[in-house]
Amino acid sequence: MGQLDGKAAIVTGSSRGIGAEVAKLLAGDGAAVVVNYRQKAPRANKVVAGIEAAGGRAVAVGADLTSPEGPAALVEAARESFGGVDILVLNASGGMETGLGEDYALKLNRDAQVNMLTAAAEVMKPGSRVVFVTSHQAHFINSVPTMPEYEPVARSKRAGEDALRAMIPALEEKGISLVVVSGDMIEGTVTATLLDRANPGAIEARREEAGRLYSVEEFAAEVARMALADVPAGHTEYIGGQDYLGA
User: Fold this and answer.
1) What Pfam families does the database record attribute to this sequence (predicted)?
2) Over the stretch 140-184, which tens digit does the pLDDT of each residue have?
């Protein structure tokens, strides 16, 4: 028996990387999981197959969170497949991709986050938990400068966090708690790869400055842990990057 038996979770952006690992961990603890992807169906199906092979329950759902129908599609899939939504992990993010428009970072990192939570909150029961995943580079952007290549994304993610935090009073009225997990750069993520491509040596420099960087698996474990952690609404869990905490 897992701690999440009988619970249903949506993990956005979970066909690979941190999201995929979080989905596997939640499923391993008993939750039925909606694995979300935007384009890469085979990757998402592989995550689902792995969960099912381990005895868990999951379904892959393609949905572009920046589209009007994307968030609703994920909620409907969770409701139809598993009876509702108890855990929402807002992991999907981006903005360093090319060819998606100058305002894509804000659309995904702020607007889509709010729309996803708004849609899910309609069916979430009292006691449900929302986990927003962000980075120190975004969370602390107003007090600690980041690399120029990442600043637009960092500011859009900070705008997303602020918008979600503004929803906390209304969520608490429904018995839903929202917490934030902020992490230093994570080894092996798409963002880290793109940053290192735009600014060669950036990851190595940050590794030396911080002493160590968390792996995808290590960080995902912390995100999954916050799905049940006994912390108040609005709590921020900091992972790595101790130098930021003194800022």
Assistant:
1) adh_short
2) 999 999 888 889 999 999 999 999 999 999 999 999 999 999 999
Give the contacts of 197 (CB within 8 A, at least 6 positions apart): none
From CA 78, how far away is CA 149, in angstroms rounded? Answer: 36
Active-site residue flag, 238: no
- Given the residues 37, 150, 214, 244, select the one marked as catalytic: 150
Q: Are 88 and 131 in contact (CB under 8 A)?
A: yes
Residues 123-151 as b/e (b if ≥16 CB within 10 A, e otherwise) read bbeeebbbbbbbbbbbbbbeeeebeeebe
Q: Indicate yes or no: pTM above 0.90.
A: yes
